[in-house]
Amino acid sequence: xxxxxxxxxxxxxxxxxxxxxxxxxxxxxxxxxxxxxxxxxxxxxxxxxxxxxxxxxxxxxxxxxxxxxxxxxxxxxxxxxxxxxxxxxxxxxxxxxxxxxxxxxxxxxxxxxxxxxxxxxxxxxxxxxxxxxxxxxxxxxxxxxxxxxxxxxxxxxxxxxxxx
Length: 164
Hints:
The protein has helices spanning about 5-15, 25-40, 50-65, 80-85, 90-105, 115-125, 130-140, 150-160, and strands at about 115, 145-150. The protein is mostly helical. Strands 1-2 form a two-stranded antiparallel sheet. Helix 5 (about 90-105) crosses helix 8. The model has no long low-confidence stretch (mean pLDDT about 85).
């Protein structure tokens, strides 16, 4: 049974993936999500970042459509979406790798970590106010070194996909 808090959390996540807002997730929604992320960081078609995120986005759609689209209509409803995201294997093998790839595109200097400037630039491109982005960065930066390590990003993504 999904609690009210979980329901609200998953509905917010669903709305982010339902790019066109029609109440279902289709492959076009995942494609638009991927392309918007690539454009935000200037990852041009064919570049390594673009190929990686596109491949992971395609994998996400395949897993959603094969594992969650119960009626096989090529559309994932909010209920089907929640069922997929509640499966630990979906999170570990599909959602987390996809989100990490998108997040790692923010690493403009390719040093393997995300600086505060890179984070703020990325969040601003997504329309998140700087003050909110700064607060989130400080919460994620567990060791307080001013950079987000791969492990800090992994923990952030996992927390994001766990009902709060």
